[in-house]
Amino acid sequence: MSANLHGSTIDIVVAHQGRGIPSHLIPAVFERFGLTQLTDTQGEGSYGLELAIAKAIVELHGGNLGVQSEERRGTTFTVSLPNRTVPKVSATHEEDTAGWARAGNKQSRG
Hints:
Elements (H helix, E strand, L loop, with lengths): L1 E5 L2 E8 L33 H11 L3 E7 L3 E9 L8 H12 L8
Antiparallel strand pairs: 1-2, 2-4, 3-4
């Protein structure tokens, strides 16, 4: 697993050196129950929903989830998310906010 910052995007890469996903199943990998077509996944507690859920969560955060795979070599998943760094609050703002709290002002400042 690795994470890389590329300007406005953060990429998280997870690679697995296993059996890989057959090329004819890659288009269905993020569909609900898409990987249940693999015969040996039955009985392992997987219902084929995990990747569909992961993709939905990533997309809700404005990102993308991609896959590359080669049979008998492994699979790589890449999560690309927008880099939305939170600016640090200045000491002046913190002191100002604390002053409002001490004064008992219950109004919110925007």
